[in-house]
Amino acid sequence: MSYATKGQRDSDVHVYSDGDYLHCLNCILDANFDTVSLDTYPLMLAHLAEHQAAGHQVPYAALERLQKEAAVSPSVAEVSRLEDAGLAGPFF
Ligand SMILES: [Zn+2]
Description:
The N and C termini lie close together (11 Å). The model has no long low-confidence stretch (mean pLDDT 94). The protein has one domain. By secondary structure, it is of the alpha+beta class. It is 38% helix and 13% strand.
């Protein structure tokens, strides 16, 4: 699932989940534009705060959804499991 797409909704970042990790695709904070992969919501929220501190645009809706999911569990895999089981969310 996608949280933010580069070039859409005034976003400079492309953030998506594969159910186990959150990825910042071709991260513009990385010198080689490598994808940053993190397994908890707090780590990705901290990463996106770094983008904002650097002046990059991060959609509010993406942050809001990540914060709602983080309130369920910090673990991306755990929230994905609960969402798939219909026990949490949807958060969008
Ligand atoms: Zn990034």
